[in-house]
TrEMBL record:
<dbReference type="Pfam" id="PF12706">
    <property type="entry name" value="Lactamase_B_2"/>
</dbReference>
<dbReference type="InterPro" id="IPR001279">
    <property type="entry name" value="Metallo-B-lactamas"/>
</dbReference>
<feature type="domain" description="Metallo-beta-lactamase">
    <location>
        <begin position="37"/>
        <end position="224"/>
    </location>
</feature>
<feature type="compositionally biased region" description="Basic and acidic residues">
    <location>
        <begin position="192"/>
        <end position="208"/>
    </location>
</feature>
<feature type="region of interest" description="Disordered">
    <location>
        <begin position="189"/>
        <end position="212"/>
    </location>
</feature>
<dbReference type="InterPro" id="IPR036866">
    <property type="entry name" value="RibonucZ/Hydroxyglut_hydro"/>
</dbReference>
<protein>
    <submittedName>
        <fullName>MBL fold metallo-hydrolase</fullName>
    </submittedName>
</protein>
Amino acid sequence: MRLTVLGTSTPYPRPGNACSGYLLQSDAAPGERPTSVWIDAGTGTLAELQRHLPPADLDAIWISHRHADHTADLLVAYYALRFAERRAEHPIPLIGPEGLLERMAGFLGPNSVDELPRVFEVQEMSGWGEREVGGLRLEWGPVQHGVPAFGLAVSDGSTRFAYSGDSAPCTSLEELAEGAGTLLVEAGYDEAPPRGDAPAHHTPEDAGRTASAAQVSRLLLTHIAETVTMAAAVTRASTHFSGETVAVAPGDVLAV
């Protein structure tokens, strides 16, 4: 599989860096079309997505949770898929938390209520679940973020990739990532919150511990706190994880 990093910024886009978003594609023989899944649609990621494929060529969209830095570009994706010169032949599967479509309709207006199902075929996540999308098998489970949030694992039959979404360290994420060659984890905290406050993100050290507990081969760090440099995040995570550790940047394309 191939992962293209569309954006990593938190909690709002920065010049040259959109918010969270990734394009995951299956391997394909020359001349064949890969299966393409847009993972999280943070602000600015739709424009970056179009550097790699037209929105109409997406096979699915998967959304980890409803926060704007992971979903805002769904609103303009609706326009792109409804009004573009070349439109999708059928509604694109949109897999996300409960209530996502209603929230979009609140922004897009009452006329969108009937039109949204013509653009998106919505599947709501409320617990553990799975779905086949082209040549990929998507599996998800709930993670800890203070709102309904999910982690993701994707398999093409030979390799497995996992993604934390936004999440504090939790057993369910470790279970979801078991068997993955590559784990993409956000490191949105520089320091853990004060004792007694419920955590909602990983620190770099937490990311290393999660990767070790899941026994993955490679750790990718993303959505890193603005007070932490990429090099420092890698160093800090590596104190708890002995495998390859990389901080990803917009435009990176990695085999996973």
